[in-house]
Write a sequence for this structure.
């Protein structure tokens, strides 16, 4: 009996992907978590254990910014969950109507903001909302609502919500497309069976279709969560690294960027930056675990 | 009679809602593009009017072309996007083939390891990535971006491609083996052509985030000669913030290539999104 020969083609097929992924993604991820346990003292890298995290959570110089960024991030996420996903699902529900004309046209048009870069989206909305140009105030004036206008991006109390809504405008195409994909796979017979029982129109959506697409809504929620807790670009483009006015739009991404890369006169601190990255990692991991273990396993999957 | 009338009303309401939202989605893009073709006074006097013979002006585009090196930024973005897509597809397809075709020890574990990256954003590791790129002398090199985007794109690419490769008929591959084809030839000549639609889906999914990314260009390639279009237009607009013609023209120039790409690939993208590749 001869030893089985080594099938060299298997490692050759696998090697490039495993090497690039491990070297550029997995290794730096763990190395960042490791760097969070060190600190630079007199040009020397010293192991300090969890002290950076203690500073981040408790030292008033840091903790105020950290909890502010975290709270803002949750608000940012909440707006997406309450505005982006319901509107996206509603649009998908209309689009999936079997006898709707021009559905493909609407679908493509509504998806356009999603393909634009944050630079375009951020600046375009900055211009439109700008009191100098005056498009937003004069449009509100045309419908008699001018008193509602305020320089939303410049006011501490409105800026974060405004940016969240701009982000909703940009990304609404994603929940819309995913929900649409789920809705069109629901077999005609199920809907027809409901019709015979007298369930039609909107109640058919609530009672038959929505329960069937719950797994998709779960996926949309976790994608929104990961995307929001990893966001940076829009805030940076619209408000700069300082996430003004007075840090009212600061989220974890901008906070981490400022900390590890430095800005203006403040020098970058890779170790504190890594600690923030560690906190972001923990939050995302927690969210994904809740989704995988608590939501996905309990959700009933219907065999279609 | 009553029924048809009710259906008519429902259709009207549906179209009304969709048209309203389509206007919300397109209005900002429309305003930016029309105003970029107008002279300064007209931009402020009548921001919602189309450019006419009197207000038409290309002054903004002239400023952009003479002040910023947009053709170079565009070229850099192209190199990074096409390069990353090439490696994601090649390495991703190779790994997906190995994972879906051969049985070997650790197959499932390796698949799980690669799938972890689908949910964990690569940005978390930025501090160490920057440190590594500095050590490797790759800062301000387009290779740094290509490597990062390839690593980021591989997990989902492998996941999607291996799903599709499992559907390729085993008889076809066995016929190839009987004819004496090597495993490499079977992969290249028989399997790859059959999963072309899935490859297109993966390419389109990765193309937009890579082209639009601001984070990694900002950190890894801030030098003038390697700026991508996204970073280049962000910095240009930041400098010319009071020159409305230039800002609007720069925004239009950033929008138009994306719209052209979208016009070409939207079918593929929408088919990919709706085929359940992400489920």
């Amino acid at each position: 009996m001869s030893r089985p020969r080594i099938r060299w083609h298997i490692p050759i097929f696998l090697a490039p992907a495993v090497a690039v992924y491990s070297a550029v993604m997995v290794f730096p991820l763990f190395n960042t978590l490791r760097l969070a346990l060190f600190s630079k003292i007199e040009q020397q890298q010293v192991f300090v254990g969890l002290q950076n995290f203690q500073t981040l959570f408790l030292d008033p110089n840091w903790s105020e910014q950290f909890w502010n960024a975290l709270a803002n991030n949750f608000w940012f996420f909440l707006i997406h969950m309450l505005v982006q996903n319901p509107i996206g699902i509603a649009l998908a529900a209309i689009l999936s109507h079997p006898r709707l004309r021009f559905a493909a046209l609407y679908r493509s048009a509504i998806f356009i903001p999603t393909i634009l870069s944050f630079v375009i989206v951020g600046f375009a909305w900055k211009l439109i909302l700008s009191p100098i140009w005056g498009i937003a105030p004069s449009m509100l004036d045309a419908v008699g609502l001018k008193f509602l206008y305020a320089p939303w991006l410049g006011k501490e109390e409105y800026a974060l919500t405004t940016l969240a809504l701009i982000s909703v405008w940009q990304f609404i195409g994603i929940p819309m497309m995913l929900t649409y994909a789920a809705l069109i796979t629901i077999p005609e017979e199920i809907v027809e069976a409901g019709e015979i029982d007298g369930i039609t129109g909107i109640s058919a959506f609530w009672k038959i279709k929505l329960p069937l697409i719950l797994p998709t809504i779960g996926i949309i929620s976790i994608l929104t969560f990961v995307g929001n807790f990893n966001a940076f670009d829009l805030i940076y483009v619209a408000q700069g690294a300082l996430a003004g006015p007075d840090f009212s739009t600061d989220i974890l991404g901008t906070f981490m960027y400022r900390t590890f890369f430095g800005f203006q006169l403040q020098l970058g601190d890779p170790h504190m930056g890594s600690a923030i990255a560690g906190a972001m990692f923990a939050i995302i991991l927690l969210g994904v675990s809740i989704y995988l273990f608590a939501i996905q396993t309990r959700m009933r999957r219907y065999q279609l | 009679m009553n029924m048809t009338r009710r259906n008519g009303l429902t259709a009207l309401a549906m179209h009304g809602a969709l048209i309203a939202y389509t206007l919300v989605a397109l209005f900002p893009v429309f305003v930016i593009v029309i105003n970029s073709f107008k002279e300064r006074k007209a931009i402020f006097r009548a921001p919602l009017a189309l450019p006419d013979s009197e207000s038409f002006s290309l002054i903004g585009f002239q400023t952009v072309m003479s002040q910023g090196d947009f053709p170079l930024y565009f070229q850099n973005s192209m190199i990074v996007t096409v390069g990353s897509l090439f490696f994601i597809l090649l390495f991703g397809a190779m790994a997906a083939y190995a994972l879906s075709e051969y049985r070997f020890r650790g197959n499932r574990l390796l698949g799980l390891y690669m799938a972890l990256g689908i949910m964990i954003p690569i940005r978390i590791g930025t501090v160490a990535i920057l440190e590594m790129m500095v050590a490797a002398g790759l800062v301000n090199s387009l290779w740094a971006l290509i490597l990062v985007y390839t690593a980021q794109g591989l997990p989902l690419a492998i996941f999607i491609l291996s799903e599709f490769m499992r559907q390729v008929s085993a008889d076809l591959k066995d016929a190839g083996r009987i004819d004496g084809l090597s495993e490499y030839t079977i992969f290249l000549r028989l399997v790859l052509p059959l999963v072309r639609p899935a490859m297109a889906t993966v390419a389109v999914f990765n193309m937009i985030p890579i082209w639009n990314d601001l984070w990694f260009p900002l950190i890894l390639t801030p030098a003038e000669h390697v700026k991508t279009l996204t970073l280049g237009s962000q910095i240009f607009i930041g400098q010319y913030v009071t020159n409305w013609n230039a800002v609007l023209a720069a925004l239009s120039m950033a929008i138009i290539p994306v719209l052209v790409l979208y016009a070409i690939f939207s079918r593929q993208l929408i088919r990919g999104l709706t085929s359940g590749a992400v489920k």
